[in-house]
Records
---
Amino acid sequence: MKKLVVLFVLVLSFLAFETQAQEKGKKAKKEKAKKEVKSEKEKAEKEVNSEKGKAKKEVNSEKGKALGNQTVSFTSSVQCDMCKDKIEKALALTKGVKSSEVNVEANQISITYNSNQVSTDDLKKVISETGYDADDVKANKASHDKLPKCCRKSGE
Ligand SMILES: [Cu+2]
């Protein structure tokens, strides 16, 4: 009789152990599935976001065109790379200027700008106030005279 009880207890504890193990396994499976679903969601979200970003960029560049991005070129009194740096920096700080490029050898400043935000007269003024000529607008004298000697127009 005692033996039977012991056997019974053993069987019971074995069953209990088995159920526990099964439960654990189920839980782990569920969690794994959850994780997979989550990562799928994240992936999808990322894709949507990058698509959105792309679309936005396209819209922006379309907008830029619609707003009137233009390129203009002025003849200037640039002498060296220091002048180039100075002018490009001044233009970079000017609202409406998208980009600028100073060609020292050709004495040319070319600027891509948004014509709804800044005018060519404004651009010439910025260059003049930096100490350089821009086509018909001569360099602001005070600014020009403050430039290092190598950057001043010869004879002035
Ligand atoms: Cu210079």
---
Amino acid sequence: MRRGVGAGASPWVVAFRARADGFFDDLRVAGMEKPRQFTRDGQANSGMRAAIVYNRAVPERHARPRGGGRAEPREITELRLIKERQPDLQSAVDMQIELIQLQRRVQARVAMPWFDWSAATVEAHDASGTPLLRFEDIPIEWTELRLMVRQTGEILRRHDSLESADFAHVQTLAREADIKTVLEQWYQRTAHAPTTAGARDAGDAMLGEVLTLALRPFLARCADVVQPRVDLSPWTRGYCPLCGDEPDFAVITPAAERWLICRRCTLRWRFDSLGCPYCDNRDRTRITSFATPDGQYRVYGCDACQRYLKAYDGRNAPRPVMPTVDGVATLPLDAAAQQRGYTA
Ligand SMILES: [Zn+2]
Ligand SMILES: [Zn+2]
């Protein structure tokens, strides 16, 4: 199983998982397959439900000014609202806010990359399964990258999401002369189609988590440039057309299309509305889909590879999807999905 900040093995998911019995009783089963047996635990349900439906009451609003009247990023405002409504998620929210602030500071200083990819180029890459962005084309500034590695490690450690041995490892890496080689090898390892389920898990999962967060300002900058300018519709794969990593969230558009969101660079691309992006299972009878009671979020569990994907249903939503916000808001859903035997 992949470990993930906001998913997988995070301490919050472990805490929720202990209380997740019966949670799926509250979810509307939308898949073709009947759900398995559930157990009941009414007490846990009420808390979980509160966590899931909080967004219903979130009004459409702009960031409120904080500290000297400068507008706060919308996602941070939304995260603070989660904390008010769901105190259980306080520590997860605090960590996410610190990560966002660090990433935004660095991303503002990243040079603007330039791309000229035609639909034919995207189609050719889709045919060969090769993502578009080569490592050497990522606009990395190495002093900034080292700072990202070091400070990301500090934030995770402060919120008990990094063991002390892993923390020491990360701090050493941030000073290492050869950090480029480590980063490049890791990028190449995750930038291709998985040959078997779980093939991407090779290597140090926690280091991968830190590197994903540390590289995000540079990759997100690329994604921001590519998203509105490049026609990605020829790309049909379940992994990211830009950096080759997996999706860890999805959004259902008002047109009922499902777009996957890359866990590493945040790029979005359209994908089969029920197929599994992880094992390419397109047999809808082997996908179990659930919705939260308010219809705001969904989970797709694949009964071929046993992995799951969370999605924000944007069809009647009060705001656009915000992966960093929705990832935290749906921590109880991770617990519920894992309770059913699915893995992140
Ligand atoms: Zn990507
Ligand atoms: Zn699958």
